[in-house]
Design brief:
Blueprint: H1 20-26, H2 32-37, H3 39-48, H4 54-61
């Protein structure tokens, strides 16, 4: 049987309690020690949820 011949029912949609933008705005600043130990992850997180924090200074100094 071909993979596209099966009939799948879509999963139930659940409503989000808060919009994504509100979750990003409510996120806390990064820990500078964690940012120094995980610069790739810190940069990715700052790209998604930008914050002016000490972690930015730590990443610039690396």
């Amino acid at each position: 049987m071909a993979f596209d011949a099966a009939a799948y029912t879509p999963a139930a949609q659940t409503a989000m309690p808060r919009p994504t933008a509100a979750l990003i705005d409510a996120s806390e600043a990064l820990c500078p020690i964690w940012a120094a130990e995980n610069p790739d992850r810190a940069l990715a997180l700052l790209f998604v949820a930008p914050h002016d924090c000490v972690a930015v200074d730590v990443l610039v100094s690396l």
